[in-house]
Specification:
The protein is of the alpha+beta class. The protein has 2 domains: 79 residues, no CATH class; 99 residues, Polyamine Oxidase, Chain A, domain 2 (Alpha-Beta Complex), CATH 3.90.660. Helix content is 35%, strand content 22%. The protein contains 6 helices and 5 strands; from the N terminus they run ααββββαβααα. A 5-stranded antiparallel beta sheet has the order 2-3-4-1-5, with helices on one face. The longest helix has 21 residues. The chain is elongated and about 65 Å long. The model has no long low-confidence stretch (mean pLDDT 93).
């Protein structure tokens, strides 16, 4: 559970210094979804990172890349990273869809005339932001939880940029540690 959502659930006193540290932990949110076209110009590429000013998405992945040689449709997973206080955060789905389609045309990945459909989802917690106080704030928050006997595991529970494989590995280690601790108490 993300730390920002977990702390309001706690039923014990939280020191102000820990509350302040939590409030300084920053993150980015993300819109993601699938855009489908009748055809595309992405070539034989699975994923493309887009560091292009004026293009709203930062990455697209061709979903049928590993499938048929000549599919009748092309589906792309797109990702749009933003901060909660940004202009992008306030876009309606229609505005966002328009900007995404503009990006496909700007990058010459697909044309609007070949557009079939789009589905857009929003994720509040997508990427941990590492600023100059990240380590100190994270240590303060997690240290307080550990002192209360609450272990944390996962990207936004540990406030570390870890991928799924790292989370699974950490969860297995935590489970083994807790199991050993609990069986030692018996």
């Amino acid at each position: 559970m993300p730390l920002h959502d977990f702390f309001p659930c706690l039923r014990f006193e939280i020191p102000e210094s820990v509350r302040q540290a939590l409030s300084r932990l920053r993150y980015n949110s993300m819109f993601y979804g699938v855009a489908v076209f009748r055809k595309d110009n992405a070539g034989h590429n699975f994923a493309l990172n887009i560091p292009q000013p004026g293009v709203i998405f930062h990455r697209v992945s061709k979903l049928n890349f590993l499938g048929e040689d000549s599919p009748e449709e092309s589906g792309f997973l797109f990702e749009v990273t933003f901060r909660a206080d940004s202009r992008v955060a306030a876009y309606s789905k229609e505005e966002l869809a328009g900007r995404i389609l503009d990006g496909f045309e700007t990058m010459d990945l697909a044309k609007r005339e070949d557009f079939i459909d789009i589905d857009i989802r929003r994720v509040k917690y997508a990427y941990v932001i590492y600023d100059l106080t990240h380590r100190r704030n994270t240590d303060a928050v997690l240290g307080h939880l550990r002192s209360a006997g609450i272990p944390c595991c996962g990207r936004f529970a540990e406030f570390e940029y870890v991928n799924m494989d790292n989370v699974i590995e950490r969860a297995m280690k935590l489970a083994a540690s807790l199991n050993q601790e609990w069986t030692a108490d018996e």
